[in-house]
Design brief:
This protein is α/β, with parallel strands linked by helices. It contains 2 helices and 8 strands, in the order βββαβββαββ. The strands form 2 sheets. Strands 1, 2, 3, 6, 7 and 8 form a 6-stranded mixed sheet that branches. Strands 4-5 form a two-stranded antiparallel sheet. The longest helix has 17 residues. It starts with a strand and ends with a strand.
Length: 147
């Protein structure tokens, strides 16, 4: 699994002009699923992201996690994180098929909730408009093949 995580002051996702998810302070998570990914990886990634200490403490150091700031998550499916970029027209055959990706996307959402965090989300496979107010900006890339 791959995730691009941005620390935000606020973020929202809309489908057909209707806001489907909105958060204040927290993480905007763009989540991609690969064909070899597992529920265990989803659980590990949720734990890693939710525990990531990238909010500033009283000394201005990145030392506080999502729980410490009362943050939440907005998770948006993002198959393009598995794009093959060797040509000028990206290919997406390296992303998991929906029959695997949807259950793992939903498992990730459930894992974040089980850790005690409010989770908003988009709709898998939908054409979505995502807005965010990036805080910092601070953006990290997670890949279960590397973490």
């Amino acid at each position: 699994m791959r995730a691009v995580v941005t620390r935000v002051s606020s973020a929202s996702v809309a489908i057909d002009g209707q806001v489907r998810g909105r958060i204040g302070r927290g993480f905007l998570v763009l989540l991609g699923v690969g064909p070899e990914d597992t529920e265990e990886q989803a659980r590990h990634l949720a734990d890693k992201i939710c525990g990531c200490r990238i909010f500033e403490d009283e000394n201005g150091k990145m030392n506080r996690n999502l729980a410490a700031v009362g943050g939440s998550l907005l998770v948006v499916s993002q198959f393009t994180l598995y794009a093959d970029l060797r040509s000028r027209r990206p290919g997406f055959s390296h992303a998991a098929r929906p029959e695997l990706a949807i259950p793992l996307y939903e498992a990730f959402l459930a894992d974040c909730r089980a850790l005690g965090f409010p989770v908003e989300h988009g709709e898998f496979g939908a054409d979505m408009q995502v807005e965010s107010v990036n805080d910092g900006p601070v953006t990290l890339v997670f890949d279960t093949d590397e973490v």
